[in-house]
Amino acid sequence: MPHSLRCVIMRGGTSKAVFLKEADIPADPEARRRLILAVYGSPDRRQIDGLGGADPLTSKLAIIGPPREALPRAAGTHLTYTFGQVEIDHPEVDWRSLCGNISAAVGVFAVYEGMVTPTAPVTVVRAYNTNLDRVLRIEVPVENGRPLEHGDYVVPGVPGSGARIMIDFADTAGGATGRLLPTGRPVDRLEVPGFGPLDVSLVDIGNAHVFLRAHDLGLTGTETAAEIDAKPELRALVERIRGMAAERMGMVADAARAREESPATPLLGMVGPPADYRNALAGGMVTEMEVDLVSRLMFMQQMHKTYAGTSTVCTGVAARLAGTLVHEVTRPHNRAAIRIGHPAGVIEIETEIAPDGTVRRATLGRTARRILEGRVFVPVDWDAVIQKRRTDGHGRG
Question: Gene3D superfamilies this protein is in (predicted)?
Answer without folding.
Answer: Diaminopimelate Epimerase, Chain A, domain 1
